[in-house]
Amino acid sequence: MIKEEIWTQALDVLQKNVSTISYDLWIKSLEPIDLKNNIFYLSTTSETAKQRIMSLHKGDIYVALTSISDEVKDFAILDPDEREVYVKNVEVTVKAENQKFPGMNTFNKKYTFDNFIVGNSNKYVYFACKGVAENPGTRINPLFIYGGSGLGKTHLLNAIGNCLNEQHPELKTLYCTCEKFTGDYVKSLQGNYSAKNNFKEKYRNLDVLIIDDIQFISKAESTQEEFFFTFNELYESGKQIIIASDRPPKEIATLQERLASRFSMGLIQDIQFPDYETRLAILMKKAQEEGFVVEDKVLEYLAEHFDTNIREMEGVLMKVWYYASLIGKKSASMEDAREALKDHDFSNKQNLTADRIIDCVCKYFNIKKDDLLGKKKNKEIVEPRQICMYVICTMLEMSLLSIGQLFGRDHTTVIHARDKVTTLIEENQRIKIAVNDIKAMTQKN
Ligand code: ADP
Ligand code: MG
Fold first, then answer.
1. CA–CA distance, 248 with 215 (Å, rounded to integer)
2. Which residue, of 38, 53, 67, 156, is most buried by count of CB atoms within 10 Å of its CB?
3. For a pocket test of ligand 1, which of 130, 285, 310 has the largest count of ligand atoms closer than 8 A to its C-beta?
């Protein structure tokens, strides 16, 4: 339980046990400050108030607090001067801890809840993250968020960190990528006894652990084991854990079953690709933040054409603006956008071939090209084959007949595959991710 919750419940008890006058005069104005080393710290508005409360209600407060939480073994009341000293000391301790473990309580300041645009595609994930940032370790634990690349996961994780720093500066919060965790762990194994202890001290004493890109978790037994122990220890002591991934736990091939099921104990929330309106709002915000002057038409054009990745969309906005300012313009027009983007992405699609898509599908599903194009009817092959037909249909302007020929089938088979995958994408997250990933693969060199 967090201190606010303990105190709210304690107030209920106190209201029953002390006179109304005392309650209104003294108890109500107490404020919970901290719960540390089993001592519950409260603050009063004056030194006199502190003396009165201690002489009249010391026992009542003690009983109320200790009856509500096992974590509370004693309490202390601070008058305004003492409170100031106390808060300063906490800040000093937090700073000292930070120096010991670089990166602790450090987040990308650019990413906040305020500058995250909320739309239908991401509202649930947004509220889940906000809830966790405001009440860490209480309701949603662990929080697992997932969604395609460039859809705002890292942004939200840092927003949680920044919000925690502001509202709960006393908490030890760590944001790290899965790679960093693994790196730290491997280093600790190579080091001496104190290196091993350092690792444990760093990760197991946290109040909030935020892990990004967990899909890169190494297959290595020992890393998964360490992660498992860290997870359990934090979870069992009511510490908040937040994890981000590009796919749901069950689809991370390298993730052990026991970890996947741990991740499913809290809330798993996906983040979808934003609709046009949200994309436009994101571009407007970005332009405003960076001081880009860009005609509305350009923003609309970009929002319309970039329907796979926000990061890429922002990169292109930047490109257009730099192009315009380079040629001395004060505002970027549609003409500048066309010129700046003439070699961009859109043209990539023109170079794309069916062969390339077939290769990407084979690579993605780890199957042989002969099988994909062959006659096998088992699910492991049929599904990728249908997805492949679908991707070719949607990305290339090829006739159904010639797509069929690639697979030695007629056009009705292609139509069936296309329609089937269209429905599957709506219903099945795994298929949706696969299609998105494959489309993205075809665009990479
Ligand atoms: P991910 O971690 O999911 O790959 P990021 O969090 O790095 O994606 O987001 C990529 C870029 O898109 C960042 O600059 C981020 O600020 C921006 N972005 C994504 N979604 C939103 C949103 N809803 N509002 C504002 N910016 C967003
Ligand atoms: Mg990210």
1. 9
2. 156
3. 310
Pick from 311, 318, 433, 437 the residue to mutate for probing ligand 1's pocket: most ligand atoms within 8 Å of its CB.
Answer: 311
CA 314 to ligand 1 centroid distance, Å: 9
Residue whose CA is at the smallest distance from ligand 1 atom 25: 116
CA 301, 303, 306: angle at the middle one, nearest 5? 100
Tell me what the pLDDT averaged over the chain comes to: 90
**From the CA of 310, which ligand is nearest?**
1
Question: What confidence score (pLDDT) does residue 102 get?
Answer: 78
DSSP 8-state assignment for residue 143: E
Q: What is the pLDDT of residues 196-242, one digit of tens each?
A: 888 888 898 899 999 999 998 887 888 899 999 999 999 999 999 99
pLDDT digits (tens, 9 = 90+) for 403-438: 999 999 999 999 999 999 999 988 888 998 899 889
Q: Rounded CA gap, 208 and 231, in Å?
A: 11
Cα(73) to ligand 1 centroid in Å equals 44
Residues with CB under 5 A from ligand 2 (ion): 153-154
Q: Under a CB-based contact definition with an 8 Å cutoff, are residues 34 and 3 in contact?
A: yes
Tell me which residue has its CA closest to atom 20 in ligand 1.
152
Q: What is the pLDDT of residue 347?
A: 43
Which atom in ligand 1 lies closest to the alpha carbon of residue 158? 6
Q: 209: which 2 tokens?
A: 């652990």
Adjacent-strand bridge partners of 143: 242, 267
- Single-letter residue type at 130: K
307: left (phi over 0), alpha (psi -120 to 50) or beta: alpha
The 3-state DSSP class for residue 237 equals coil
C-alpha distance from residue 321 to each of 311, 325, 327, 430 (Å)? 16, 6, 10, 37
pLDDT given for residue 336 in this prediction:
92
CA–CA gap between residue 76 and residue 141 (Å, rounded): 30
- Give the rounded percent of residues in the chain with a pLDDT score beyond 70: 97
Q: How far is CA 52 from the centre of its chain?
A: 47
CA of 6 relative to ligand 1 center, distance in Å: 36
Low-confidence residues in the chain, pLDDT < 50: 347
Ligand 1 atom closest to Cα of residue 213: 2
CA nearest neighbour of 244 among 209, 212, 208: 212
Task: Please list every protein residue whose CB sits less than 6 Å from any atom of ligand 1.
Answer: 111, 116-117, 122, 149-155, 282, 285, 310-311, 314
